[in-house]
Amino acid sequence: MDKTGPRPLLVLASASPRRVELLRQIGLVPDRICPADIDETPRRAELPRQYARRMADEKARAVAGQINEPALILAADTVVTLGRRILPKAESRDVARSCLDLLSGRRHMVLTALSIMPSAAWTQGRHAERLVETAVIFSRLSADQRDALLDNGDWQGKAGGYALQGAAASLIRFVSGSPSGVIGLPLFETAQLLRGQAGGWLT
């Protein structure tokens, strides 16, 4: 890997503080945080894996088009799915309650798609993608347990209405895959993709 010359900017195409903190765990601090402003509505009959990949790619492309300096853009999208059903981000207590009722006692999948894209000014970078799948099973939630999760407020803005790193952790009996991917950024796969880029991102 060529480590000569100034390193390009690392731009995170997300406003998520969780993703910033996860990057810090592997020794990376984004030079810029540029949330992507895109339409996140699933297309008709779009499958969850297709949707997650498309969202991450569109976020990366949208931000790459705004950067006029040598930069590598990192985008991610996390989707909670029951079969072919994409669960929404919980923007209200009622939505969070509906998600938790669906997930209670059931196995579901958390899909996190990664997209790394160079800006036009960074000719040594290359586009790279990865989809990480994690199986999660909630215990069967009593009404009191569900309401306690709702009262905690961890559900706000979270896909599927829960946060693995929050109070829900005490009620999740099985995780197979990437715990950091459930939180929003699979660190092993992110590090792999960054190591494959020019610029000396990670050793």
How many beta strands in the DSSP annotation? Answer: 7
Shape: elongated
Major beta sheet summary: 7 strands, mixed
Give the helix tally.
Answer: 6
The class by helix and strand makeup works out as alpha/beta
Share of residues in helices:
25-40%
The overall pLDDT, averaged over residues, is 93
Model regions low in confidence, pLDDT < 50 over at least 5 residues? none
Return the CATH architecture: Alpha-Beta Complex
Structural Rg? 18 Å
Fraction in beta strands: 15-25%
Taken in chain order, the helices and strands follow as EHEHEEHEEHEHH
* Count of domain modules: 1
Distance between the termini: 9 Å
CATH class: Alpha Beta
CATH topology: Maf protein
Annotate the secondary structure layout.
Layout: E1 9-12, H1 17-25, E2 32-33, H2 48-64, E3 71-82, E4 85-87, H3 93-103, E5 107-118, E6 128-138, H4 143-152, E7 172-176, H5 179-183, H6 187-195
Parallel strand pairs: 1-2, 1-3
Antiparallel strand pairs: 3-4, 3-5, 5-6, 6-7
